[in-house]
Amino acid sequence: MAQHHLAQLNIGRLRYPFGSGEADEFIAALDPINALVDQAPGFVWRLTGVGGKDSAAIDPADDVVVNLTVWESREAMWEFTYRAEHREFLHRRREWFLPQTEASTVLWWIPAGHIPTSLEGRDRLYRLRESGPTPAAFTFGQTYEPVETQLAAP
After folding, report:
1. Are 60 and 66 in contact (CB under 8 A)?
2. Which segments of 4-47 does DSSP mark as H helices, in order?
3. pTM listed for this prediction
4. Which helix (H) or strand (E) covers residue 65, if one does?
5. pLDDT 10s digit of each residue in the chain, 154 long?
6. Where on the tree of life does the source sit, at the highest rank (predicted)?
7. CB neighbours of 30 closer than 8 A, spacing ≥ 6?
8. What is the DSSP-derived secondary structure letter of residue 74?
């Protein structure tokens, strides 16, 4: 059994107010995409039930969507994100989300069996924004292998 898994957090702010209709296609796709992720090889866990939508944390107060997932490996996450049906929606993200001026996705290694919190993900994202990619907070563009001392670091 693997001693580590890959955690991932990404955030985005909707272009249009939540519930206004312009992002309805995106919102409608959440359940089908999440059904695919739930069956994806190497998928371990995802944040659900926040904001009344089983898929991602959607905060209607400020139109922020948060996605927090855990994968068995970097390769498994890459395969789902960039090579599966999810890819079409990824390519269309500019239709639904405002452009990001700073990092909006962060990856980090966790001990197998650990379930990360949104707060942990936020802290990793801030770490990435402040210091750039490190073994504690990185991106697909610059990845690191798991290091036992990093696995326990919040």
Report:
1. no
2. 24-39
3. 0.88
4. strand 64-71
5. 679 999 999 999 889 887 788 888 888 888 888 899 999 999 999 998 654 444 455 555 677 888 999 999 999 999 999 987 888 888 898 999 999 999 999 999 999 999 999 899 999 999 999 999 999 999 999 999 997 655 554 5
6. Bacteria
7. 53, 54, 55, 56
8. H
